[in-house]
Every structure is written in structure tokens, then in C-alpha cells.
């Protein structure tokens, strides 16, 4: 006679199944044969882009 799996075993199996799923990509680009996926955008890149944008806008506004 086989015993039913314990509730703990079923919960562990469900949790491991959920842990294996990948989070959605932060950025995905498909163009012809090119397929680019960025999983996580680094903080330093966001800071560098914000700094460059701010500097460019400041230069543009002060030159007018």
C-alpha cells in the first residue's frame, strides 16, 4: 500500500517549481536576426545616462 505524499513534500515541490521560473526581461529587442535581451539594468548605467542627459539639457538651455 502506497502512502500519499505528505503536505510538506507537495509544498516543497511547488516552491521549487516556482523558483525555477525566470523573471521577465527588463528590455527585449528583436530586429530581423538580432535578438537582444537585458535581464537587469545596472544602477551605474542608469546613473550615467541620467547624468549625461542632465548635462546635455543644461548645456542646451544655457546656450540659447
Please describe the biggest sheet, giving its number of strands, its sense, and whether it closes into a barrel: 2 strands, antiparallel
- How much helix, percentage-wise, in residues? 40-55%
Total beta-strand segments: 2
Number of helices: 2
**Overall geometry:** elongated
| Gyration radius over CA | 24 Å
Uncertain regions: pLDDT < 50 for 5+ in a row?
none
Could you say which structural class the secondary elements and strand pairing correspond to? alpha+beta
Q: Give the strand line-up of the largest sheet.
A: 1-2
Counting structural domains, the number is 1
* Rounded average pLDDT: 83
Approximately how much beta-strand content do the residues carry?
Answer: 15-25%
Order of helices and strands: HEEH
Whole-Å distance between the termini?
Answer: 86 Å
How do you describe this structure in short?
With 64 residues, this protein is of the alpha+beta class. It has helices spanning 7-19, 43-62; strands spanning 27-31, 34-38. It has one domain.
Describe the structure.
The longest helix is centred in the last third of the chain and has 20 residues. The chain has a two-stranded antiparallel sheet. It has one domain. It contains two helices and two strands. It has 64 residues and is an alpha+beta fold.
What's the layout of helices and strands?
Blueprint: H1 7-19, E1 27-31, E2 34-38, H2 43-62
Antiparallel strand pairs: 1-2
